[in-house]
Amino acid sequence: MEGDCLSCMKYLMFLFNFFIFLGGACLLGLGIWVIVDPTGFREIVAANPLLFTGAYIMLAMGAMLFLLGFLGCCGAIRENKCLLLFFFMFILLIFLAELSAAILAFIFRENLTREFFTKELKNHYQRNNDTDVFSSTWNSVMITFACCGVNGPEDFEAIPHLPYSSLEKATPEACCQRELQSREGMFVNKEACLSGVERFQNRQGCYTVILNSFETYVYLAGALAIGVLAIELFAMIFAMCLFRGIQ
Questions:
Q1: Mean pLDDT by 10 residues, the chain (247 residues)
Q2: Nearest to 16 by CA among 235, 240, 226, 228
Q3: How many domains does the structure of the chain reveal?
C-alpha cells in the first residue's frame, strides 16, 4: 500500500510540475511578446521604466518557472532527492515573491484610479515634447488606442502650459483621428482636429478604452495567478512527501 501511495504521489508530482512548466512557458512567451511587439507596446514599455522593469521581471519569472517545472518533473520521475529538495527551496522562494507582489499590488491599487492618472496628466503632460518620457508615453497610448486624455479632450483644457496657438484648441495632435492607429498613420484632417472640430477627434477617454480592452484579460490574469499559486503550493507539498518517502 505504501508503495502504491508513493507511486501515485510521484505521478501527481509530475503532473503538477508539468503545469508549472506550461505556466512558465506562457509567462516567458508573454514577456517576450511585450518586449518585442511592434504594434506600439514596445515603445510604451521602453519609455516607462516601471513597465520596462515589470516586463523583464515577468520574463525572468517565466524562465525560472520553466526551468523549475522541468527539474521537478525530472526529480519526480527519477525519484532524485537532491532535485526534489532543490525544486522545493526555489519554488518556495518564487511562491513567497509572488505572494508579496500580490499583497503590494492590493495595497497600492489606489495608484491605478482615474483620479490619479488625471492628476498626473495635468501635472506632467507637455503635449508634443517627445524628449519627455511621460509625454511621449501618453502620446503613444493615445495614438495606439485611439483615445484622448484620461476622461476625454477636456482633460487638456486645464493644462495652462501647453504651447498651442490662438487658432488651435488645447487638444494635442495625438488625439486626432488617423487612418492607421500608429505614429506613421496619416491624419484624417489634422487642421480641423486641432481647430476643435469634434468629428475629427478621438473623444473617448483612454481610461475607459483601456479598461474595456483589458477587463477580460485582467480577470483571466488574476484567475491564472491564483491557479499558479495553488499549483505551486500543491507541488511543494507533494515534493516534500515524495522526498520523505524515497529511501
A1: 66 79 82 66 54 72 81 79 81 80 70 78 78 82 88 78 51 86 80 85 87 71 76 78 74
A2: 235
A3: 2
